[in-house]
Structures are given as structure tokens and as C-alpha cells.
Amino acid sequence: MDSITDISDLHFLAGDSEMARRIRAHDWPKTELGPPQSWPQALRTCVRLMLNTRHPVFIFWGVNAICLYNDGYKQTIGPERDAIALGNPGAVVWAEIWDVIGPQVGQVLTGGEATWYENHLIPVTRHGERQEAYWTYSYSPIDDEQSSTGIGGALVLVSETLRAFCFSSANIQKWRACAPSSTNCLALSRLWPVPSSYSNMSTTPM
Known about the structure:
Beta-Lactamase, 5-stranded antiparallel β-sheet, two-stranded antiparallel sheet
């Protein structure tokens, strides 16, 4: 049962999605964010938007980049990270890649410019294995008058782009050079069959 569904001023957490229910039920007073009743309006607005879109959306909030996300984003991170991510600091949740994304998040949180990365390779561990994953994503500042920097958090919009990247004209030659016994190519072919126009490329080395 949701722990705060009876509080009318928390309409920004309304919804029947899994993450809406989990955010309502989370023990926020034990986290750096504190109870949702005390969250600044900027965070409330972004959480409301996040929970009402199917596009993968993630929020880093505060100096320690506390994590919130929606159902769309949950599908990309794997069960291991999903089990620890909600309400925890970014450096803990994303420890394996924080050396890459930490400075990007920090740039936004300290008042720097928004970021944009296209088809960027960031390997992640999910479903028990380290996977090479390509992402197109941006970090955008969330203004907050209560913050000393004027920035309360970073809004993350992201798409995993591996399929599009593999079948792009710039990278299709990699399929030609990929041996039939290659573990990566076999795994990819099981997930996404090579388009018919390229079918000979997946089986015939150059």
C-alpha cells in the first residue's frame, strides 16, 4: 500500500505506473531529499513530468545527485541497479561509470552548460553481465531558487541507440568484418536480425 496516497498536496506523485507507486512508498525521510512534502517546487514539477511520460527520464537532485527515474528508464538499467537506485546518490548508484558521467553531471549542477552526447559508448553491468551500450542523452539544468548555485538538479533524457548505431551507414562495415563465431555479433543477431539487405554481411567476412 502506498504510504502517502492520502496526502492531497502530493498530487505530483499521482499515477499507477510502477515507479509512481514506488516513489510514493519510498521512505524519503531517511534520505537526503527528506519527505516529499518538503521538496521544492522545481523538483515537484520535474517529477510530475517524469512520471507522466513513457520516454526514459532520470533526475539527479542536489549536491549528491540523488536519483529518481520513471518506468521508461527502469527498463534500461537492469534489475541490479534498479534495486538500489531510487533515493541514493549518483556516485553510489553509478559507481562503475561515475568517472565518465560524474563530471558531466557536476558541470550541470554547478551552473555550467547543458550537455549532449550522441551514440556515446558507456558500458554498463545489467542482468549479470557487463554490456557495451550506446546512448544518446542530455543533462539539462533544473533551476531552483533555493539552491546556492541556482541549479537544483539535472534532468536526464536518454535513449539507448545500439541498434541504430550498429546499422548506420558509418558502422555497417563492422558487421562485414565480424566473424560468424563472434560472441558479440551472435548476441546482436539474436536480439536484432540483420536487415535482409545486409544478411550476407553477417556471415561472410571481408
